[in-house]
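Many introductory courses stop at the sequence. We go one step further.
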Amino acid sequence: MENPKEIKVQTKEWANPTPAGLVALAVACFSFFALLNGFVEKSAMPLVGCWLLGGFAVQIVVALLDLKGGNHVGGNTFLFFSAFFMLVGGLEMFVKYSAMTAGTPADTRIDGFAWIPLALAVLLWTPAFFKPVSLLSLIVLTLDVALPFIVLVDLKVLPAGFSVVPAYALLAAGLIALYLGAAQIVNTAFGKMVYPVIGKKK
């Protein structure tokens, strides 16, 4: 009979949830791309809010599991992305649309001030994503381009026409995020490099 003290409980580790978080990021990027370019009407804002709230549910799970697994860079990044980009962004869509339809548009300059620390955080954290250089590094670089323009447009320092710059930067971020997420899923499933990615050995 085995000594109870020698019995080891084997627990299966959770799989990496990052690909799901990247898909959620892509959904947000594509949605903002359409809004910022005027490809959809303002009446789409509540629907965008629903998609962003879905993204929050995904990214908060990714953040917690990343942090539990010791990934302090990815975990902290997904944590504040889930809170401010997804949850707050989604709720704001409902608030802004309600105010607009009521004929009392909200003073969105406060968004510009709130986005300042978020844009600075992404910018100041950027070097951590270059160890090593990877597709994730490129996503962060596109956000480094998009966020300052979002700040300046919200603060009304730049006219609304400049929204095209963050729109296409976010589209690029979304496309890269989709490819990286797919590469992580497929390459892990096959145990080899099927979709090539930079920063990884073949």
